[in-house]
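re: ur question from yesterday

yeah so i grabbed the chain u mentioned. its 76 aa long if i counted rite. heres the sequnce exactly as i have it in my notes:
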Amino acid sequence: MAKGNGKRNLWRSSVLVSAILSSIVGSIVGGVLLGYWLDEQFDTMPLFVLIGLLMGIFAGFYGVVRAVKPFLGDDD
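ran it thru and got these structure tokens back, copy pasting raw so excuse formatting
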């Protein structure tokens, strides 16, 4: 019984880590790429990259909170 729980916890942990990493990296890269594209369109080079970076960081951590929330509090 304990062996099965260990495998289950390993899979849950792997899924959680994958969700956290993809949320942070995807949001930041997406925000920077969108900002870079907007800067090229409007010729305002660092402005939209910085805004995209900040929005990507915020969206990434918001995604982490949403991903971690179901895993908290069920280990009674």
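noticed a couple things. The CA atoms of residues 29 and 56 lie 7 Å apart. also Residues 42-75 form one domain.
anyway ttyl
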